[in-house]
Amino acid sequence: MSPLPIESVLADLSSALQQRDEVVLEAPPGAGKTTRVPPALLDADWLGKQKIIMLEPRRLAARAAAEYMASMLGEAVGRTVGYRVRLESRISTHTRIEVVTEGILTRMVQDDPSLDGIGLLIFDEFHERSLDADLGLALALQGRALFREQPALKILIMSATLEGDRLAALLNDAPVIKSEGRLYPVAIRYGAAFIAPERLYHELPARMLATIKQALVDEPGSMLVFLPGQAEIRRLHELLRSALADQKNIILAPLYGDLDLQQQRRAIEPVAAGRRKIVLATDIAESSLTIEGVRIIIDSGLHRQAVFDHGVGMSRLHTRRISRASSIQRMGRAGRIEAGVCYRLWSEHQQAQLIPFTPPAIEQADLLPLALQLQRWGVDDPNELTWLDPPAAGHYSTAVQLLCSLGALESLNKGWKLTRHGEAMARLPLHPRLAHMLLMAQPLNVTGLACDIAALLSERDPLSS
Question: Which of the listed CATH numbers 3.40.710.10, 1.10.10.10, 3.40.50.300, 1.20.120.1080 matches domain 367-464?
């Protein structure tokens, strides 16, 4: 097994966790933090026989990380290393490293605020700042403070692009461990200026196609192409099938969250000698995943983001430019096996104009799920918890009022408490609106129909999963 850059700081990391209960780890893409850190800490004296829980933002990344770590130990998944994601669990009584998706952690903390038997909680790729990650950290910190006795629950925050000093200050001036460098250099090739939003639909596929065809001529190896969403992936996939029909050595592989597991595995597995692969991906491939053989990145510079519209009470998808941090993450997908190259479909001047970090979801997402979980936790005022960025008071108040209209809350003195209906909603692994729909369907004897609707709205294509 070849050494990775992260290995040079593993001893320092273990020592820091021996002395402190909170540590921040900054490591660039490709350093190996996701798969090398948990096994390296498994035999630490301070951990004893307790478990390590590592949070991953996506199901595919959670499965892939667990499978890779298990293979490093020469074991099947579910022995020493396992995973828990929505609707799937591979753990046993022997499991000491659990890779879980973020919503799973929220339920774990709600069920046992002390997280008894867990010695280390790792937040991987924290720079993505999902709503569940921010909530999970806030609940874990308060649960530890109120209910945990010795041995202490230790918390490790990991990311390639992180506001490390700001986060360290939040965590009692936690030490920041930095792993420098990646395995191989990545050359950057800039293109023309960003496409104007009104021309995006017509111009993006043609520009991506031209760049991919040029890269196939200029560079060897497989390719990872970043696109904003599934619609763009499908359009470009059709264009490439036609344009590359005579090149039988090239495999086209879409990669996005709603694909079934077999198709997702096909995208990340290595190809046979003499063949090349073009992976067409959303930002699901931006972090945690290692796609074997990739040394070329084609980056549209765009991503699709759900933003809550408070005027209509619904989330809308917006196509936006990525942040500088995301551009670094994407570039870092190359250079894993040899020197790589990253084609950016924007100018070098525009790179300097990108916002430094992607705004956290807590600033622009629907806060209804967060409000329901905080009410279940017993908190009326979010400011009772520790946040890197607290939810805006007005937006949170709107979410609370909507919970009241759904019958999930009732007034108690100057605050609120969950009704029996609200308790049932909070225990369902669904958005509160969908949970409310399922519960209301029961007395009407239309539960089956409600389940079908909930599956369609939450999974988009449940029949293919």
Answer: 1.20.120.1080
